[in-house]
Amino acid sequence: MKSGLIKEFLKDFILPPGPILALTLIGLLSLGAVLYYRAVEIQRFLEPALALSQPRNEVAEGFNQLIAQEFGKGPSQGVRFSMGSIFINEPLLFADDRGIRKSAEELIRKLGHVFLSALQEKRTGSYVDLILVCTRYPFSERTELNNVMRVRMQRRSELILEYMYRLEPELEKKYGQYFVSVALPIDRRDERVNHVEFRIIPGEMLHIEVLTRLRKYVK
Predict the structure, then answer these.
(1) Considering the domain 49-211 in this protein, what is its CATH number?
(2) Burial track 68-85 (b if 16+ CB lie within 10 A, e otherwise)
(3) Domain residue ranges of the chain, discontinuous segments joined by +
């Protein structure tokens, strides 16, 4: 008797398999529609972002390949490319105030060849407007000390450029107008204070290509 009552009770509160399957399918279709809508929205965001970053990524990849060809893969020689700049540990280039290390000449020659190859390559070269040879010094509240350090580090940046031209003469003959030496003040706590930076400034062609790729997303 009790089992019969339980069965009747369950029939009143539990749906049969048919309606359950229908509700499950409706739920899956609704979930699929929501996921598709989200995917379309994400794609609308990612496509312009990719169009904005792709030209810069292509330039970076070109420089990375050239650096790997000259120096080998990995930062084993203290040379790395990051955020549009090539960084070199300053102690690899200078021995106190005695000028460029003799052992650094091969490193500078290879670096000069990287820039020569990059500027000769039609696509990469068209994106480069200027290359800053930057040495850094820790900024001080003492004006006299800043003046001394600025002159000293400016001479170092000029010396690097002179050696690079001497060891890769074709670089100066063909592309000397692309290079500028500069000394930059920097916070003494900044980890880049002991690095020489070769900062690659993009030219108009890079900006034009970015705008061209973004144009189709503007309504």
Answers:
(1) 3.30.1330.60
(2) eebbeeeeebebbbeeeb
(3) 49-211
